[in-house]
Design a protein that fits this description.
single chain, alpha+beta, GIY-YIG endonuclease, Nucleotidyltransferase, domain 5, 4 domains, eight-stranded mixed β-sheet, 17 helices
Length: 563
Amino acid sequence: MDSQHDSLKERVAKFPKKPGVYLMRDAEDEVIYVGKAKDLRARVKTYFTGADGRYQIEFLMRRVEKIETIVSESEQRAFLLERDLISKYKPRYNIRLKDDKAYLSIRIDENEAWPRLTLVRKIVQDGARYFGPYTFSYELRNLLEIINRTLPLRTCSNTIFYNRQRPCLEYQIKRCAGPCCLQVDPEEYRTWVKHAMQILEGKTEIVEDELEKLMNLAAEDLRFEDASLYRDRLELLKKFKHGAELISSRGENRDVFAIYREEKLAALSVLMVRNGRVVDNKNYSFPLVEVSNQDIIESSIEQFYGSDREIPEEIIIGIQIDNLEFQEQRLKELKGTSVKFVIPKRGIKYRLLGLAQVNAHEHFIATFNAEERYREVSENLAKLFQLSQIPRKIECVDISNLQGSNIVGAHVVFFDGVPDKKNYRRYKISNQGKPDDFSAIYEVVYRRLTKSLETGDFPDLLIIDGGLGQLNAAIKAREDAGVKLELIGLAKMRSEKLEKAKKKEKKPERVFLEGEETSIALDPNSEVTKLLQRIRDEAHRYVITFHRKSRSKRVIASKLDGI
């Protein structure tokens, strides 16, 4: 080890004294750490002199066999490159946040003649106003429902709007003023748009005052129907207002980062305060962490704020982090105005930090208690079936057909015992006409594995819903695909005794293993059995739903052909 480090020291002494990124590789040539530096030579030297006292350095340096550098034009460029390389290599000793690209935001383009609120998944610099992103889509849709019922803005796309000949149903139920076809005062419409943005900013009092004035004015003019409409909108807005907790009456925008940690398990909570109200909270978990709390906070901040996220004026943290001036400068360049980091000791900001820490603790309990339970079950599963590794990612393949017609297949994905629905897939089987489960299983497994050869995304264990024949078909597909993968077959026990048993009595599960002619009967009360059943039942539900939809489409098509 010492001779290896001496050799590395000699190479580091020749590194450029320029900004850039360094990559550390282990004996298998795998990138295990990516870092950035204003001065590459000076920064990497600290790993050998003991000047870098971070917790994980000792473990990191035991594994380092090679260090590479990439020179950048500036420290800012180095930061961007570091982020890209971490995303690409996913190094063991770097902290990574889950990408929130799927989160929704609200977009309003005030440059349009008749602006509208639209949902988008990406924030771009196009001159429009964006609000979000929002973690939970149901909260966002509830907010839009409040705005649509309070303010008569259009909701249709530009294509529909500019081609409509008469007002739609939204106009009839008084949720749209009908600017597509009717004479609507542009200034009044702009006022509604302004009110919508005020609601999104949490400034509901301004909109409430305006609605109350309109209600009283309508009542004085004996326009009781209009007065009733304004009253209903006012009450709706007040109910919505009570759902948001007021933290400060001065309307500040802040994000609060807090961490909770036990040994190598950590949870991070980011509390988002807009206009004095807590509007959102994002939680992240980090299993098997080998870095310091400071590194977790710093790395999380670097990844949390990109060009597509709203940056507040103030960021509250509980501990001091390195490169604070660099972080403030980077965020200032992204935001256009200054951003301040605060470590509070008392007052409202300290209360906010405490609230974020409570959220981090709750997320830790919810996440890692479940993970510990799954780890125990998965270890027992691996022992029972003599697997080469403890499976974290388990997939299950199932087939559905009706007398050989509309044959479809599907596979579901579970990670640490939790459904990963975004990676579920459905398959239309090419060989229709006869009920051949074996060829259908072969096709689904072969297509699934050949796709994995492109992406490198393989399951730790693949469950086949069926007996020995289905398992052998899957094994053949795996061999033809040229993939190494562990498979098992899961089926209900069949015997003469069971056929004579009461119908209410559940049939035991049995598992078929590769190379074994006989099956293993599972204990119906074991957690391993319950896990396998849950995965298999989810695959069955998913493929049956797909089969019904496919069958319905074919029936409709047949009826249309007969017209």
